[in-house]
Specification:
- With about 220 residues, the chain is an alpha/beta fold.
- About 40% of the residues lie in helices and about 20% in strands.
- A five-stranded parallel beta sheet has the order 2-1-3-4-5, with helices on both faces. It has a four-stranded antiparallel beta sheet with strand order 6-7-8-9, covered by helices on one side. A three-stranded antiparallel beta sheet has the order 10-12-11.
- Helix 4 links the parallel strand 4 and strand 5.
- The radius of gyration is 19 Å and the shape is elongated.
């Protein structure tokens, strides 16, 4: 989880609470730091205050969506007006919580957002087993000969999309639709970058050869 809030008390309390819930948390206190962290696409969700130094939460969210990063975002605001909530949701927020809030409500909203994301990425589907490679969309886990391969949500979605079609070349445009939700949401270079991330992590357990490049077209996961 990424927590972006300029109030030290709230930032610390939310980070500690989420950590106690078993979540790994990164917390920052300004808009620019929050944007740079969120642009990596390596978080399951972002808790984002609207009023921030340097760059407002609205602008952070707007730039994330423009860059094709669809990480679920829960906005925090001291304003409870309907127009404020509408503005945030129109910019691509997945939830809106008014300060002061109960921590249990924040956790419940985050878990609901993650369930919706998992459903959208097809993580309720069947486990894929290709020899020693196992890709489990329910547990969101990947293993090779029993060795766990730690992947970010986006990396997992990419590998699952390919492994679900073994021995079939999948184009970069199709991967953009499957993983990013729209072939126009990000550039093909983003696909190449994320394939590189996945390949390096597979290499670490001796499975890098499973993911191959189809030059000028896309990628393929071959059955071992």
């Amino acid at each position: 989880m990424l927590v972006v809030d300029d109030e030290p008390g709230i930032r610390t309390a939310v980070a500690r609470g989420l950590t106690a819930e078993g979540m790994e948390v990164v917390a920052v206190g300004d808009g620019h730091s929050g944007l740079q962290a969120a642009l990596t696409g390596s978080f399951d969700a972002v808790v984002l205050d609207i009023i921030l130094p340097g760059l407002s939460g609205y602008r952070v969210l707007e730039q994330l969506r423009t860059a094709g990063v669809d990480t679920p975002v829960l906005l925090l605001s001291a304003k409870d007006g309907e127009f404020d909530q509408a503005d945030g949701l129109d910019l691509g927020a997945d939830g809106y919580l008014v300060k002061p809030f109960a921590f249990v409500v924040l956790v419940a909203q985050l878990r609901a957002m993650l369930r919706r994301r998992d459903a959208a990425l097809g993580r309720t589907g069947q486990r894929v087993r290709l020899g020693p490679l196992v890709v489990d969309p329910v547990a969101r886990s990947v293993s090779w000969h029993g060795d766990v391969v730690e992947l970010s949500p986006r990396e997992f979605a990419l590998l699952h999309a390919l492994a679900s079609r073994p021995d079939t070349a999948v184009s970069k445009d199709e991967l953009l639709r499957l993983v990013w939700g729209d072939e126009q949401a990000a550039s093909r270079n983003v696909v190449e970058v994320y394939v590189g991330y996945v390949r390096r992590k597979l290499d670490a357990v001796g499975a890098g050869h499973v993911l191959k490049t189809v030059r000028g077209y896309g990628y393929i996961v071959e059955s071992p």
